[in-house]
Every structure is written in C-alpha cells, then in structure tokens.
Amino acid sequence: CTVWTRTQSHKAAARLDLAGIYPPIATPFTAKEDVDFQKLEENLQKYAKIPFKGLVVQGSNGEYPYLTEEEQVEVVRAVRRSLPADKLLMAGSGCESTRATVRLTENLVVTPCFYKAKMGSCALIQHYTKVADSSPVPVVLYSVPANTGMEVPTDAVVQLAQHPNIVGLKDSGGDITRIGLIVHKTKMQDFQVLAGSAGFLMAAYCVGAVGGVCALANVLGGELCELERLCVSGRWEEARVLQQRLIEPNTTVTRKLGVPALKQAMEWFGFHGGACRSPMQPLTEAETQQLRQDFSSNGWL
Amino acid sequence: CTVWTRTQSHKAAARLDLAGIYPPIATPFTAKEDVDFQKLEENLQKYAKIPFKGLVVQGSNGEYPYLTEEEQVEVVRAVRRSLPADKLLMAGSGCESTRATVRLTENLVVTPCFYKAKMGSCALIQHYTKVADSSPVPVVLYSVPANTGMEVPTDAVVQLAQHPNIVGLKDSGGDITRIGLIVHKTKMQDFQVLAGSAGFLMAAYCVGAVGGVCALANVLGGELCELERLCVSGRWEEARVLQQRLIEPNTTVTRKLGVPALKQAMEWFGFHGGACRSPMQPLTEAETQQLRQDFSSNGWL
Amino acid sequence: CTVWTRTQSHKAAARLDLAGIYPPIATPFTAKEDVDFQKLEENLQKYAKIPFKGLVVQGSNGEYPYLTEEEQVEVVRAVRRSLPADKLLMAGSGCESTRATVRLTENLVVTPCFYKAKMGSCALIQHYTKVADSSPVPVVLYSVPANTGMEVPTDAVVQLAQHPNIVGLKDSGGDITRIGLIVHKTKMQDFQVLAGSAGFLMAAYCVGAVGGVCALANVLGGELCELERLCVSGRWEEARVLQQRLIEPNTTVTRKLGVPALKQAMEWFGFHGGACRSPMQPLTEAETQQLRQDFSSNGWL
Amino acid sequence: CTVWTRTQSHKAAARLDLAGIYPPIATPFTAKEDVDFQKLEENLQKYAKIPFKGLVVQGSNGEYPYLTEEEQVEVVRAVRRSLPADKLLMAGSGCESTRATVRLTENLVVTPCFYKAKMGSCALIQHYTKVADSSPVPVVLYSVPANTGMEVPTDAVVQLAQHPNIVGLKDSGGDITRIGLIVHKTKMQDFQVLAGSAGFLMAAYCVGAVGGVCALANVLGGELCELERLCVSGRWEEARVLQQRLIEPNTTVTRKLGVPALKQAMEWFGFHGGACRSPMQPLTEAETQQLRQDFSSNGWL
Which of D245, D244, D277, D240 is nearest to D259 (CA)? Predict the structure, then answer.
C-alpha cells in the first residue's frame, strides 16, 4: 500500500518534546458507579506536585471503554482545567472506523482491533494517515496488545513515523527488541517512543526510549520520576536497583490483577481509587493480600 | 460468585423457538461510505424469499463497530420495517460496560472484551445476569472469539442458561466438543445453541444445536436452508455431501478473507455487497481470484 | 515444493481398512518407574475382549517420549505378541530428523516439531514423502497440536493423501471444520481419517471420519465401540445421548488432567494404570476428586 | 511441591563464572547430510581467535534434535578436543524423562516439553532438582519457548536458583521484565542469567544479565564481544549504536528464517555453514535476498 510522505522540516518545526513520565490516570467512581469528579480533582492536585511530564487521560487504566462519550468529554475537560501550564495532556481516543476516529481531536490513538485479523500494516497505515492528516494536534500511536489482541506492526510504525503529524508511539507490549528496532529505524524522523509500562522502563531508556506512560505512576509517581532521572543522567547502577524493586508492584497492578488492583493500591498510597465499573470485578480477599505482598516485599509498604 | 436462579416454569412459558438459519446481514455502503438504505432494502426483499428463520442485524458481518449509534438504530429500524411477520429479528448489541449494555434493548449480546484478562466466568455471569434481568426481550449470548479474543467459558454458559430470560447461545468458536457439552449440560433448561458459522453447521446439528447464524447465508442462503432440512430430517448422507461443498466458500468469506470477501461474493450471487468502511481494506486482485476459486472449485460458480 | 504422485490403483490394491476404535494404550510402570510388562500383558488380555479394531502403541498416552529406544522396541514386541490375529497394531513413531524417522518401520508417524516455525507444508510434505517411500508398512499421519504445538496443514494432508503408502490421518486437534474439509478434499484417494479424541468422535463420524484413536478407550472401551456402532448404523439420536455423557470424562483424562488422570481412571475400571514416569507429576487430592466427579456425574461411577 | 535447599556456602565455593559471550555453534554437514568434522574443526579454529567466554554445543542452532545420540557424543568430544584451555564449554542436553536426563552429564539442560500442559513449576522443580543433584557438573537452566512452546516459570527459576549445583539460566524468550525480575529475586544466590539472543543483549546487561548465548555470534562474534565490552564498561551510548545495528541481522537468523539463514550468513562471513538436515528446508531465493538485505542495510555486508 502507498503512504503519504512530506519533507522532514515540517515535523522539526512542530517538534513536541514528549520526554518524561506520565501516569495514565484512573477514573474514580462513586458508590453508584458514577464518575466522581471531586475525587478526580483531588488526585490531580496531588499529581501536580510530582515532576511528571504530563498526564494521560482516557487510557486503558482510565476505564475509557466503560465511559459514555459524554463522560469521556467531561473527564478530559476536567483534567485540562486543573492541569498546570507546564504539563502536557495526552488524551486517549480511537474508534473502530476511520471516519469516527477522524472526528475526534485527541492525540493518543489506539488501534482499531475488532476485526483484528484484517488490521494488517496496510489497513493501519491508511487509518493512521487519515487520522493524522486531519488532526489539529500531533498524534501518538498506541499499541496495547494485552487489550486489543494485536500490535501495530513494526514496519507500519516505521512508515507512519515519516508523517509530520505523527510524533511518537506508546508501546505497551514490552518487546524490548522491537522497541530498540523502532528507535533505530526511525532515527532520521525525530520520532519518540514511550514505554507503556513500568516493568521495562529502564530497559526502554537503555535502548533509546524517551519516557514512559506507566500505570504504576498513579501509585509510585515520584519513584518513577526518580528512575527517569537516574536513567537520563547515566546512573545505571542506581537505576537498576530501583527498577528491580518496581517490577513486582507493576506486574500486579497491570497484567496480574489489573485496574481493580491499581485502584486499591492508590488508596494505600493516599490517592482516590475506589471501585471499578461493572463488569470489572472487585479484588477478592486473596488477591488483595497478594497485591499487598507484592508492594511490601519490595519495601514499598 | 453467586448467580440468580428462578423456577423453570418462567422460561417454559416464554419459550422462544430459535430453530433455523439466520444470515447476519451485511451493511451496504455508498461510494462515500454512507449506509445505503436503498440497497439494504433490495437485499432484504431477496432474503424474504428464502426460508430463513429470521435475520441477524448488527453482527460482526454487519460492520457494527464501524457504525455510529444513530446509524445502528436506523439500520435496525429499516430491517424491522421490511421484515415479514413470520420472521424473527435478532439485533446484535453489547457494550463494554454493564450499565451501557443494560440501556440497550437488543437481544444478541456480545461479550465485553477490552479487558479480556479480567472477563472471567464471574464477571461475565454478573454482566449477563444484569443485562437479562432488565431486558424486555429474551437474550442470546454471543461468543465470537476470533473478534473478541475470548470465549464465554462453558461453566458460565451453563450457569447463565438457568436465567429465564437467557434463551440461547450463538457460538462462533467452532469447538464441537464444547458445543456438545453445552447442549448436554443445559438439557434441563430448554436452552438453544446456534452454530455461528456454516463450516461446522452439520456437525453442530449432529451434537444437538438447533440452527445457525452463518455469514455464508448472505450468499448461499437457500443452500444453507437445504442443509438444515437434510439435518433435521435425518438425511445425513445427503447432508454430508452438501456440507462438504460449503466449507471452503465459508472459510474464505469468514476466517480467511473476511467481510470484504463476503460482500464481493454477494455481488456475484445477485445481492448488494459493495465496499467496506475504512480501515477495512478492499480485496486485492489475488484475493478476489482466490475467493472465486473457492466458490467455483466447489461447483457454486 | 513438488511432491510425488502415482496412479490411484496402487493404493486401492494395498487397501488397509482402518475403520474402528483404537485405544492408545498406556504403559504401566513399577514403583521404581520401570516398565511393568506383567501388568501390560494383563491389560492386553482385557482389551482383547472388547471389539476394538486394533491398538495403538507408543502414542502420547503411552508416554513414549519417556521410554528409551530399547524400551519402545520391547513394548511394541510385547503388544504384538499378545495381539489377537484379527486386530490391527499401529505403532507410533516419529523423530525430528527425516533420516532417523526413515530408519524406523512403524506406521503412525508424528510430526517433527522442535523447529516448529520452520515446519511448514513444504518441509512436512518432503519429510512424510521420504518416510512413506521407504516404509515397508502403510503410514498414518499423526497431528497432535496439544503436544507438538503445530498441525499438519490441511493442504499438506491433501497432497500427502495422494501417496500410495500414506493411508490416513489421526487428527487430535478437534477442529471439525478441518476434518470435514480433509474428508472432502481426499475423497478420490481412499484416505481415512481417525478422530484423535473421544470428545468429537460422533461429530467426526458425522462429517466422514471412519474411526477413532481415543485415550478414553483405555477406560470405557466397550462404550466407545458402542458409540461407533450407533454412528455407523445411523442411530444418531441414541449416539448423541451416549456421546454427550462421554465428553466430560474424556476432557478430564486428556486436556484437563492428562495421562496421570487416565491411569488413575483405568484403576477404577479394572485395568492397571499406576504412576507416570518423572517429571510427570501424580494427581493431587483435589484433582483426583475432580476426576471422580467428571465420571460419576455422567453416570459412569 | 517441596524443594531441596542447602546453605549458600556450597555454591560460593563452587562458583563458576559464566560472564561473557558464547556462540551456540552450528553443525556443518556434508552433501550427504553427514556431520562434517573437518569443517567443524576449521570453524572452531576461527572461533578460538575471538574473545568468547566459551562455546555452546548441542543448542538449538546445532540442530541437536537431528543428531543421533552417537553423533551428539562425537560432536561434543570434537569440540572439547580443540577448545582452548581458557574457554568454557557448555553442552546442551535435556530429555523428556527425568531418568534419561539424569544419565547425561552435560550442563545446559533444556526443559522437557512434550507434555507441555503438565510441565508446571512443580514438575520442573522436581525434574531439575533431581538432575542437578546427580550431575557432576554445574547445571544451567535453558528456557527456549520458541522451540519448546513453554517457559520455565519465573517462580520455578527463583526456587531452583537456591540449588548449589544450578548456577544460571539461559533465557531465550526475551521478556526483559522477566529477566530483570529473575536477577532481582535471585540476587542472594549468585545466580547468573545469560541472554539467549543478540536482539536484547544490551537491555539484558542493563537489567543485570552477565552475558549472552547468541546465534549471531557464529557470524558476528567479534562485534558481539565488542558490545559486551561496551556494556560492562558503562559506555552505553556507544553500545546502543552497535546494538541497534545488530537487531535485524539477529532477527533474520533466528525468529524470521532460522538455522538455514544462520548457516548461509556464516558462509558470507568466512565460516562453514552449509545445508541443514532434512526436514529443515534450504532458503528460497527470496529468503536469501532478504537475509542479505538485513545484513547489508545495517552496514555488515
């Protein structure tokens, strides 16, 4: 399939520096499962004191598939309102059809995935090109195979990196060989890769990523910013010690127990997490203990 | 997890006979990718002459994830308007959150699947129970792992079969052992299983299914109704010959080439198929030839 | 890749009728994990009274990968010695390299699978063709994806079916659409398909298989021969009732709990099962209860 | 399950330093597919001039499943004979049964995998413990999921690391989060992790691995030793540039095209590769060109 190309200069002009750590923020709900904007606001005030590069709203950890369109708009608006001027906001979006995705104006665009067997490089290149052509804001590709059941193929990423309005990739798959290769193959394009999970954040920095969107940053945000600082200043020995202590807590709030665990851990660390929307189930007693153990055995609780 | 149970009598009273063949109808688009209601209407008139039990609208083959909510409502309304009085209409639905799914009033309810790792038996039982409790129409479970990346687990199906407002399962996975087991374990509940694809339709009848929702019925509807007749009347030898000739055409319009191939084949057989919505790609020349070959080598073209 | 073809007449001449039920026999061990030939002999005498078509020795259920070459030879010899004259013996074999496989003279040839990513149609066609060319006995292809992690692709089976010394396929994958298609595409070759598991035996007969190699036949051999009789005589209603009661016991001694469960169930039904060789672990207490439950809830215990 | 434990002192005493780069050497064959010991010897003389820590013989890249037992012994003997005194030799082994594995005296022990669904932590811990108990040489665990279809679970590795005769793990899966976690959880045991592929070698060093067993070292051995030097001396910027240029050549000789490609590339770089044993197929013309492209586009040809 054919793909659009332009001169490099456009992107250089529009350069948006993504480097740093972002929590993909959770959405607190009331007991009746409505969005709790008061608690959201309190979380945001606490996050404002952590040296994040910015926030991600409407990512997987925000339970965006469980929000109505109106709620999604309201949540983005609320976050934007309280965001410090020096912070970036990335808002997740992504519909199955290209035309619906084009209508949105958000910038972290997840892959269409329902017809996953048909979403090869050609379809994704066409999809993201149209979205980026029409988007008023720079677009970040978003590959999250644990949820979508598919990756943006490496060759599609490399080709899309040439688009002046596509500035980066959030890669949650964690294949470090692929991340290294994408950095290598896009080095002429000022394309920026963000690690999509804290478990491989240090390794991602090592092979050339510039930051991370990490669920665990909702809980241990300061620590992840510290890990960033150690990596970018070349203090790898210290970084390794810190990274290793973060793996188990991260795995437990992502792959192992997911959003309900993330929200429970947030409560322990002074944030509002609360329940998830149905059909997402609350943790069992045994899961809660496992969660606590994964934090305490690494010295965080 | 706990689940609702009622006396058997409720369901017996409300008995809805699902037995028969249903095409999950495709959605024709204009050259500009808008829904083409005129062509849809013409297809429906042709389908009215085939001895289908009814129609499925907003299934995977209808590209429902690519339609807006308004379009989905309009398409269902158009189909209902032209439906002969003696035919059933099953309308696909299914949102990620339980609360949004409850608000819909359609009856073929696909699994929530974005957080697939968390959608175990317990979550699905709770989800479907709430949906069925509040639904004014009988609910059919819809398991389509090729798209959703997950099945409704057998134990969840068996438990949900006890709900008086859950009358059946459309199973597109094609695991015939599982289908036989589900029929066996729900035999006290008057629960009806529909095969989700023409490739295993005869085998599904053999182990106790009562019908099929088959993409291929958009193209070879009369032939699938004939296969049904042979199976239910015990003419298995003739059924086998017909079934075998349908496997390759079916695989090519489902697993192998998908909706664009289904729509192309519809054109060859006198229906309106047309293009898909982006990002679904049109067939390549080679794919079109393969498609034609899979029909012609089995004597259909 | 190219493949050998000959005239049909050769195979017709050599026609070997595979139709019927075969237990893939288990290998009893002593407490010290040595082969217990005495107990094996006692099992064989009991099997001789069941209307099996024959026996399979050195299949997955015989723990063949755990036997030394010498033990494999001895076990085959022991079985052959006690085999009634009217029964067939299929002996499993299959090495990773073509040259080693050629040297064996057994007939149920499992796929080489260590380099599974490289074992495409071309490699398998070449491999099986060389094996069949040199084999003094007819060859049966053996596809067991749960253990090998790969299938013999359908197109490879269809091409290999033309070889005069390849007479059939034992398919343990259970994809009934594929089984129907293979029967269809090989109908000019007098190629015989055997179901590799009791869970889909009736459905396999329905779409054209001629028999089954079923682990469960080690335990409920008479019942499986009865199921065969009902299927081949067209008594499908009775067959369905019997088939359904066999699914759970079968799943538990294959996919769910495997060989240790098969051997435990054999003990309950008057055969010698005993322990497995390390590293295969014995059942836990909970597993044993689950196993018993799966037999008793279907009326077998 | 229970597992053996001893005091830490034993292992400290027996400490074997595994740190460094190892080529898992290929096995050259003659035109008749016999082992070509002359060519093997010539390769070994060239490898002797590269600062490898040692060699691995009978790994996946040596086509060990295609060698007879006698050939395996002869190849190991030949390599040992020509090995410089200051180099380590790791010889692959691993049978399906524990008793057969115990009888071998080699040290790089691949997982038993035929009954993969049954090879959980408990079975593997028991298996490796018995092997290590009786082995006269230190044992290295060997996890190669692309071939075996299964990993040694992390918890099993952590527990086995306490065994005084188990000194390390070769991990070919490439999950960098897992590698970091294993290093973290075994830090009290002087347990050494080797990356099983060049694609993630730098990232593995970054999170605490001590070396690598890399197919690509058969071709670009000096370059991989240089990458090692850059990593262990903390010159990460230079390491990154070199690492990135190695990813595509590595992927093509491993995951993408496998052993036939490795052997072809060896020819281009002055080593003897030659053909593989059947059923492994030679490269097609298109594959050979892709292979060449993956080396030349990164500046190696």
Answer: D277
Could you give the count of Cα atoms lying within 13 Å of A181 in the half-sphere of its Cβ?
A: 23
Which residues, 6+ apart, have CB-to-CB distance to C247 below 8 Å? B177, B180, B181, B184, C198, C199
Torsions phi, psi of A290, nearest 5? -65, -40
Nearest CA distance, A236 vs chain B (angstrom): 34
B111 touches B142 (CB < 8 A): yes
- What pLDDT digit, counting tens, does each position of D227-251 carry? 999 999 999 999 999 999 999 999 9
d(CA C210, CA A64): 52
Distance CA A58, CA A71 (A): 10
Does residue D141 register a pLDDT over 50?
yes
Tell me if A200 and D236 make a contact (CB, 8 A cut-off): no
- In this structure, are residues C121 and C156 in contact, taking their beta carbons and an 8 Å threshold? yes
Domains and CATH numbers, chain D: 8-234 (3.20.20.70)
Question: Nearest Cβ partner of B184 from C206, C208, C247?
Answer: C247
Q: Are D193 and D171 in contact (CB under 8 A)?
A: yes
Do A and C make contact via 3 or more CB pairs under 8 A? The reply is: no
The ipTM value here is 0.92
Rounded distance between C-alpha atoms, residue D299 and residue D294, angstroms: 9
- Active-site residue, D116 included: no
**Which of B154, B171, B172, B176 is the best substitution to test chain C (most C C-beta atoms within 10 A)?**
B176
Q: Which chain C residues are Cβ-neighbours of B206 within 8 angstroms?
A: 202-203, 206, 236, 240
Q: What angle do CA A211, A217, A223 make, to 5 degrees?
A: 85
Angle between the N-to-C axes of helices B285-296 and B236-251, in degrees from 0 to 180, rounded to the nearest 10: 170
Distance CA D47, CA D55 (A): 9
CA distance C43 to chain B (A): 29
- For residues B161 and B192, what is the distance between their CA atoms, to the nearest angstrom? 9
Alpha carbons A238 and D14: distance in angstroms, whole number: 29
Please enumerate in sequence order all residues whose Cβ is within 8 A of that of D7, keeping only pairs 6 or more positions apart, or say none.
none
| Rounded distance between C-alpha atoms, residue C148 and residue D247, angstroms | 29
Nearest to C202 among B174, B207, B234 (CB): B207
Characterize the bridge pairing of strands C211-213 and D20-22.
unpaired
The lowest-confidence range among B32-36, B97-101, C219-223 is B97-101
Chain B CB within 8 Å of residue A259 CB: yes
C-beta of residue C275 within 8 angstroms of C-beta of residue C33 = yes
| pLDDT for residue C43 is more than 80 | yes
Count B/C contacts: CB-CB distance under 8 Å.
81
Catalytic residue among B11, B39, B53, B170: B170
CA dihedral B262, B268, B269, B271 (to 10 degrees): 70
Residue A198 has pLDDT above 60, yes or no: yes
Stretch C152-172: mean pLDDT = 96
Contact B123 A281 (CB under 8 A): yes
Per-residue pLDDT for C1 more than 70? no
Mean of pLDDT over chain D = 92
E strands, A71-210, are 88-93, 108-110, 139-143, 166-171, 192-195
CB contact B206 to C (< 8 Å)? yes
In the three-class reduction of DSSP (H, G, I as helix; E, B as strand; rest coil), residue D177 is classed as helix
pLDDT in tens, A269-293: 999 999 999 999 999 999 999 999 9
